[in-house]
Write a structure and sequence with these properties.
Layout (H helix, E strand, L loop, with lengths): L1 E4 L9 E4 L10 H15 L3 E4 L6 H8 L4 E6 L2 H17 L6 E6 L2 H5 L7 E6 L8 H8 L4 E12 L12 E8 L2 E7 L8
Parallel strand pairs: 3-4, 3-6, 4-5, 6-7
Antiparallel strand pairs: 1-2, 7-9, 8-9
Length: 194
């Protein structure tokens, strides 16, 4: 087992076990620091969805930094089980009233294909690079999953062309770190686009 460290917020410094699973690559501390600096004015009180949660680095970081609700979706059984254990640990460790932290064992694309509940303010899309599921996930998100002016984080191989955004979305910020391109898109009121 590896470890994941929360780098900011009320649970900063907390270390969580991460199962050894092929293709599992937690978002690095450096990339997370940059991303959450971008999102800093929008995290507190937000509803966040981590679609391809893996180690849970992005969802757990959002929870630590004050998100009101975080839902993590993971299809691999052993990884989802560890996410649930880590979520219980973080929920118990949070000082005072905290947000809601939930884990769903499901295929993210199938889960997004169902009817959307109340919309999310921030969505993290970091699927296994071999799956090439980013554009399909973005298309599904336009079907009621996003609040107006939502942010969608996208992590893809630096060697690949940037994904094509749905109508009404725009790139807000982007960078490259090693072999990873990471970017933040903004929906600009595209919550009802089809």
């Amino acid at each position: 087992m590896g470890q994941l460290r929360i780098i900011g917020g009320r649970l900063r410094g907390r270390r969580l076990p991460v199962p050894d699973q092929p293709g599992l690559r937690p978002t690095t501390d450096r990339v997370r620091e940059t991303l959450f600096n971008w999102l800093a004015p929008n995290i507190a009180g937000s509803r966040c969805l981590d679609c391809f949660a893996g180690a849970g680095a992005l969802g757990f970081e959002a929870f630590s930094r004050g998100a009101a609700e975080v839902v993590l979706i993971e299809r691999a059984g052993a990884v989802a089980a560890q996410l649930k254990a880590n979520a219980a640990t973080l929920s118990a460790a949070a000082d005072g009233p905290g947000g809601v932290l939930g884990v769903v064992k499901a295929d993210a694309l199938r889960w997004l294909a169902r009817e959307a509940p109340s919309p999310f303010d921030i969505v993290f899309l970091d699927p296994p690079f071999a799956d090439a599921a980013v554009e399909q996930a973005m298309a599904l998100l336009t079907r009621g999953w996003l609040a107006a002016d939502a942010f969608v984080y996208v992590e893809t191989p630096a060697s690949a062309a940037p994904p094509v955004l749905p109508p009404g979305w725009t790139w807000h910020r982007e960078r490259t770190a090693g072999q990873v391109r990471y970017a933040l898109a903004r929906t600009l009121g595209a919550a009802d686009a089809v």
